[in-house]
Amino acid sequence: MHFSVLFKRSGPGPLDRFFSCLVPLLGAFLLSGCSSLGYYSQLAQGQWQLLRARQPVDQVIADPASSPRLRARLAHAEQARAFASERLKLPDNRSYRLYADLQRPYVVWNVFATPELSLQPVTHCFPIAGCVAYRGYYRQGAARGQAALMRQQGLDVYVSGVEAYSTLGWFDDPILSSMVAWGDERLATLIFHELAHQRFYVQDDTAFNESFATFVEREGSRQWRAARGLAPLGTAQLQQREQFTRLVLASRERLQAIYAAPLDDAHKRVAKQAEFERLRAQYKQVRDSQWGGDKRYDAWIYGPLSNAKLLPFGLYDQWVPAFERLFHEVGGDWPQFYRRVEELGHLPAADRKAALQRLM
Questions:
Q1: What are the start-end ranges of the E strands in 185-266?
Q2: Could you tell me if 116 and 154 are in contact, meaning their C-beta atoms sit under 8 angstroms apart?
Q3: What are the residues whose beta carbons fall under 8 Å from the beta carbon of 33, sequence distance 6 or more?
Q4: Which of 150, 215, 217, 359 has its CA 20 to 30 A from that of 25?
Q5: What digits encode the pLDDT tens for the residues 62-74?
Q6: CB within 8 A of 175, min separation 6: which ones?
Q7: For residue 4, what pLDDT is reported?
């Protein structure tokens, strides 16, 4: 995924770039009130702390104080990073050739919100990244505080920790300590996914961006394993994830119908809670009858449910089959594939959606 960034490249070095962009931006946001200034100030401070924490990966690997596990994980990540540029034709820059120790489990916490009886997200617009359905905070307490304020306004709210994000190439994104606990395969695919965002990104079209990056991640992983003489990954977990996503998306469609129905708010609230219980019951049936009791999604499904919690589903893979078709049409040629993706991305939004539907 990506996280909204505010900074534009200018000047000879990263510090000059940072401050030359930070000062005018914060000055502009003074016009929109103290709350906006406070929010953008924490973004600037969080990004600045992240920049300061970066070290070249080769130095971390060479440092005898680094743990053997960290050195091994970073060495594997650097092999995947080289493969990304050489074979997948993704950007060849310093991103993911640096490491940053966050000393916390997540890099940011995203706050999603919707009205109580609607699935329409509360959106937020940023320079460069465009409009997205969340606000990000570098401190968990700040995210929870914002969530509490939004709940007081009668909104459905969901807070989600994020282990990695892309600045879309405006800074050299590091491998984060929150990522190195993952297995080697997941770390490699994350690098492919985030570099795809740097390769091409369309403002205000999250489904397009995430589906494109997800396809690059999956096809890149397949080629990465093949290059090392490894068999393709098993499909059981992917199938479970797709089944779970379909359950949630079907529930979201039923909720949409409830909210559009000619009912008063009291009846809609009752129907909303009944739908959440229906989703849990369907999940339990699938889990026990088809997954052998695998409980990987139990914490999510049995935690508090809300409209906002359902928002991220479907965004990451809605158009993946369309990008698969496009990749096959160009014979698996990555540069030609990216050119076709750019052509789609430059279409007006309605035309772009229609073209993707035709590819599906």
A1: none
A2: yes
A3: none
A4: 150
A5: 999 999 999 999 9
A6: 57, 74, 77, 96, 98, 99, 100, 187, 191
A7: 38
Selection from 230, 205, 235 nearest residue 218 by Cα? 235
172: region left, alpha or beta (phi > 0 left; psi from -120 to 50 alpha): beta
> Which tokens hold the place of 189?
């695919």
What per-residue confidence (pLDDT) applies to 18?
41
- Measured from the Cβ of residue 10, the count of other Cβ atoms closer than 10 Å reads 10
DSSP reduced 3-state for 10: coil
pLDDT at 33: 47
Q: 146 with 137: CB under 8 angstroms?
A: yes
Distant-in-sequence contacts of 261-268, Cβ < 8 A, 24+ apart? 265/117, 268/117
pLDDT in tens, 20-62: 344 344 443 433 444 577 888 888 899 999 999 999 999 999 9
Report residue 149 as tokens: 């304020």
Q: How far apart are CA 87 and CA 80, in angstroms?
A: 10
Average pLDDT over the chain, rounded to an integer? 88
- Where do we find the tokens 């559009």? 260
Mean pLDDT (whole number) for 159-181: 89
What is the residue-wise DSSP string for 283-335?
HHHHHHHHSTT--TTHHHHHS---HHHHTTTTTTTTTHHHHHHHHHHTTT-HH
From CA 254, how far away is CA 275, in angstroms rounded? 8
